[in-house]
Amino acid sequence: MMMTRRRTRSTTGVGRTRREGVGRRRGGEDQEEEGGGEDQEEEGDEEDLSEDEAPLAEVLAVQAVLVPYGRSSFKYEDPSQRPPRGYSNILGGLLRWYFPGIVNFPSGGCDVAWRWAHYSLAEDPMGRGTAADLVVAKFWKYFKRAEGKERACDDVLHQLARKRVTGMHYEARIQCVWHADRFVHMTKEDARDTLMQPWQYMQNPPQYVGKDDRCFLAMVMWWTCPQYLKKHEEGKKKRAEMRGGSHIQGSIPLSLHLQNEELRTGAKPNVFAVLKKMKQRKTPDPETGSAVWLNPQCETRCTSYVSKFKQKYGEEANPEAEDFDPEVAVLAGEGLKHGRLWFGDGCVDPAKEEMAAKEQAAQEQRAHMERSSEYQQQQNRTAAADDASAGTYELVDEPDGSI
To answer: Which BP terms does GO give this entry (predicted)?
Structure first.
C-alpha cells in the first residue's frame, strides 16, 4: 500500500522542501479539454508515482528501451522487459511532481501552468533549468531511447507530455466533484458533467497543487467562469453527437495492444484488423449475430478505408491481410484532419503521413490541372464550332439580304 506524506511547496513552484506520493487516479483516462477526446494514451488505472517511490527502483533496474510508435506513443524494444510501471504512469507522476503552479509570461502577466509549454517558463530556483527540463531529464533516467531514434523519442515524449498535462487538469476538476459528493453515489460520467460553486471546489485541492492556494484559486476561478461553462456545454454536445464511445481499447495505447497481441499469439497482428476490432462492440447483435459498431462514424471510417484500399490494390485486396497503408488512410479522410490522419492516426510514422499527404495533394493538383485542360479544350472546340457556323452563313448570304 502506498504511503502518503504531507507536502509543502515553495512559492516558486518547482522547488519543494518535503515530498509526498501522488494518489491513485480514478478512471485512468486523460481527455482533451471538455471534448471527450478520442485518443487516450494512458496505460491503465495505475498509480502515478512520485520520483522517490520505492517501486521506481524496479524501473531503474530494468530501464527498458522505448521505440517511437506514431507521433504520440512508444512501444518497448523488448516486450519481455516491460517494467512494472508503464512509461505514461511514470511521466504522469513526474508532471505532477514538477508542476510549476503559476508561471510568469515573458510578455507580461501570469497564469496557471495549464499546458506543457508553460513548464518551459518555470525556472528551477536551484539552477537546474526549467520544469520541462527536469521532467524530461528524469524520465530518461527511467528509460532509454532507441539507438538512432533519439530525436524521434524526444518528439514523442513532448507530445505525450502535452496530452498528459491537459488530462491532468481535466481529471483534477472531476476529482474535486467526486470528493465533494463522497456520500452520494456518483459515476465518473456524472462527476464529469457536474459543475459546482467556487467554495465547493476549494474544499478539495488536487494533490499536485499542494498548499499553493493562489494557484488553486486561479484554477477554480477558471472552472466557474462563463467561458468555461460555454466550453463545458460544447463538450457535452459533442459527446452526445457521437452516440457511443470512440473505441473499446481502454486506456492502453494501440502500440501496446499490438505488442500484447503478438506476445499472446506469437504472430505479428494486422494493424487494420486491430483498429477495426477496437471500433466494434464486444457483444454481437442478438438478432443478426454480427458485430455492432460503437457509433456511425466508426463504421464510416473503416468502410471508407476498405473502399480506398480496394480502389488502389484491386477488388480482391484484403486490408486485414496487408500492411496498413498511410496513403490509403489519407485518401479515406480526404487529407489530414487538423494535421492528423482521419483513420489510424497514431500508428503511422509522422514522416510517412506527411509523404502520403504530399502525394495526395500532388495527385489532386494533377487532377485539377487535367480538368482545367479538358475544360479549356472543350471551350476551344465550342468557339471553333461557333466560328465555323458563322462563316457558313456569310458564304450563303445574298447582297440584297435574302438567303
So the answer is: transposition
